[in-house]
């Protein structure tokens, strides 16, 4: 039942990928536990420095002999609009005072991001990481060629049919099909974020009709029901974020895990307030108070850097109101379990459901 | 494979319901063709006068001996804000001039809507229509009791888990679970429309965990893949709108059908511009030009009445730019077929898929 094109390509038992959530969630323990359970653990390396990434890889390798992957963010050029910068600084100043945040952000530059990206790529190659996925765009033909020469399996991200086709044409080996249900950042890189919020019930079959490479459904999938449903719609595998975020081994803050466990599906909202890029998370004071400024904020990654200290301070004092509580639309299904137990349950549930259909 | 609690209750062969799209789409030919094919045809009676409704029922009865249903809109109280009325009148005046629309709208009142609703209900009872579904709210306990005494099967609409529970508690026999993928108006009646846009991959399993009555999945389902996927997620049946809208027998304007056939999934957007209530349709000039005023428009049904003549005139001169081109998020899967042929294809596809899983 489980073996298919994707499991063969990734050399895994179950087509279940742990989403490469950035920001410390994908602890080596989580990544290794998922890979050891027959799924694919992924390191969310988007925000990692080269040294952090090297350390993470070696820690994962100490905990598993199975394949694992790494996700990188494609840097994009951005313009620093000082008017917008000043606006957002003024808006968030009261939050900084409330949380006693003194530090001033160091603003990122495209050149800096690009140089980090290339260092990250070199580590992926040197360390012979078997799988590398990308978010927020497509790597250049040169990068793709280099990784392919090193037999690294490449996975892209798409939120529309057009983006899926672009991934296939660029030579990706598989593509994550991110539905509107998905938690965290939207992977949209072509066209408007608002017009790229397609539910998986619509997105998977339309993508499946348009491309041939394996399609990995992502968004709201938390259990065996979602896996079999995704398969019916044309997906080759699934990627699950929120379901693994609440797992015991995940590095997510306990406040974040608890917020998901307590949330209902309509408390999960879309916001640009934290990073300048649209993302889905549990509604809180920061999102609510920033709502009216949303269209005037600096773009990603500027806004992301500007709010970083607030989010950190909020977590440090144990108040979730200013944290980015990323979650997909199925929080009611979330369960705090060891990752191995979660994978086992999902697999059993899927197998039982398939027989009953 | 097909018989279940819902097919037994509705006395149909396949748990496939044709969505009760209002505004002349559900022609007697379409409703009868769906019922004759083993699904459930539904009359979208929301905007129908009592005499139109009687006529429609008798025409459907002439074309089928199988069960069919009727959908009614629950009237809700609204406040006439003359400032907003004047604003929208001013905004749409240029469109009226462009389309040479002279007629002035007659504004609806809550009392008028309520009286029409009660007349519609009386017709449903007198004509012994076997199934009655509701959108935009819950009928009163008195209405529910009256319909139940007459052995009419009652179906509600929910866009969140909470609304689904409210439907079950009110005594509905089944509930349509409307995902964010769905075309046309959002059925949200509790809480904010924007926070009630849940993709079916998330919504169905969370509703299935919360209520016992049959769940009818609606939104983006167009073929056998969607039906089996919905079933995996916990749905008892499906309701399909866009898929039937483009069918040969549908009363939808040919411009509307063609717009769907040509559209891609990310051209389908949410708008309040046509009616004051959030709805999903294909982007056009009217939606684009009204975008910036969206939060300042009069509420439903006022805005609906104010834009009616524009939409009608747009259709009359053969330009789809000012029409409400309702569509779900899967337009790429739409096919112009006779309804009987569509049902047959879907059933065969679902049966084949189930065996292959």
Automatic annotation (TrEMBL), chains A, B:
Q: What does the record give as the function of this protein? A: Nitronate monooxygenase that uses molecular oxygen to catalyze the oxidative denitrification of alkyl nitronates. Acts on propionate 3-nitronate (P3N), the presumed physiological substrate. Probably functions in the detoxification of P3N, a metabolic poison produced by plants and fungi as a defense mechanism.
Q: Which CDD domains match?
A: NPD_like
Q: Which family does it belong to?
A: Belongs to the nitronate monooxygenase family. NMO class I subfamily.
Q: What's the encoding gene here?
A: pnoA_2
Q: Sorted alphabetically, which Pfam families does this protein's record hold?
A: NMO
Q: Which InterPro entries match?
A: Aldolase_TIM (IPR013785), NMO (IPR004136)
Kindly indicate where the leader peptide sits in this chain.
none
Q: Which domain of life is it from?
A: Bacteria
Cofactor list: FMN
Record-annotated membrane-spanning stretches: none
Descriptive protein name: Probable nitronate monooxygenase
Which keywords label this protein?
Answer: Detoxification, Flavoprotein, FMN, Monooxygenase, Oxidoreductase
The answer to whether keyword Oxidoreductase applies is yes
What reaction gets catalysed by this protein?
A: 3 propionate 3-nitronate + 3 O2 + H2O = 3 3-oxopropanoate + 2 nitrate + nitrite + H2O2 + 3 H(+)
Q: Which GO terms describe its molecular function?
A: monooxygenase activity
């Amino acid at each position: 039942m489980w073996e298919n094109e994707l499991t063969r390509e990734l050399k895994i038992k179950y087509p279940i990928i742990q989403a490469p959530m950035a920001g410390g969630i994908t602890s080596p323990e989580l990544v290794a536990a998922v890979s050891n359970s027959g799924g694919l653990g992924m390191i969310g390396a988007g925000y990692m420095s080269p040294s952090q990434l090297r350390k993470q890889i070696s820690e994962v390798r100490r905990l598993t002999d199975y394949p694992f992957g790494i996700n990188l963010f494609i840097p994009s050029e951005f313009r620093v609009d000082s008017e917008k910068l000043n606006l957002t600084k003024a808006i968030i100043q009261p939050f900084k005072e409330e949380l006693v945040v003194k530090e001033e952000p160091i603003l990122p530059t495209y050149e800096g991001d690009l140089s980090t990206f290339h260092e990250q790529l070199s580590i992926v190659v040197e360390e012979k990481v078997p799988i590398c996925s990308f978010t927020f765009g497509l790597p250049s033909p040169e990068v793709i060629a280099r990784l392919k020469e090193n037999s690294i399996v490449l996975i892209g991200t798409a939120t529309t049919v057009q983006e899926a086709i672009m991934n296939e044409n660029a030579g990706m080996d598989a593509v994550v099909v991110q539905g509107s249900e998905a938690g965290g950042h939207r992977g949209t890189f072509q066209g408007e974020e608002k017009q790229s919020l397609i539910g998986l019930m619509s997105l998977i079959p339309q993508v499946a009709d348009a491309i041939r490479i394996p399609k990995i459904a992502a968004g709201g999938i938390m259990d065996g029901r979602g896996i079999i449903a995704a398969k019916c719609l044309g997906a080759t595998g699934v990627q699950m974020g929120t379901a693994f975020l609440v797992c015991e081994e995940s590095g997510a803050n306990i406040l974040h895990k608890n917020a998901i466990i307590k949330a209902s599906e309509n408390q999960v909202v879309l916001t640009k307030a934290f990073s300048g890029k649209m993302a889905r998370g549990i509604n809180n004071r920061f999102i609510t108070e920033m709502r009216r400024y949303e269209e005037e904020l600096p773009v990603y990654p500027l806004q992301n850097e500007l709010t970083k200290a607030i989010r950190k301070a909020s977590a440090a004092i144990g108040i979730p109101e200013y944290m980015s509580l990323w979650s997909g639309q199925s929080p009611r299904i979330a369960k705090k379990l060891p990752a191995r137990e979660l994978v086992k349950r999902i697999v059993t549930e899927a197998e039982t459901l398939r027989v009953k259909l």
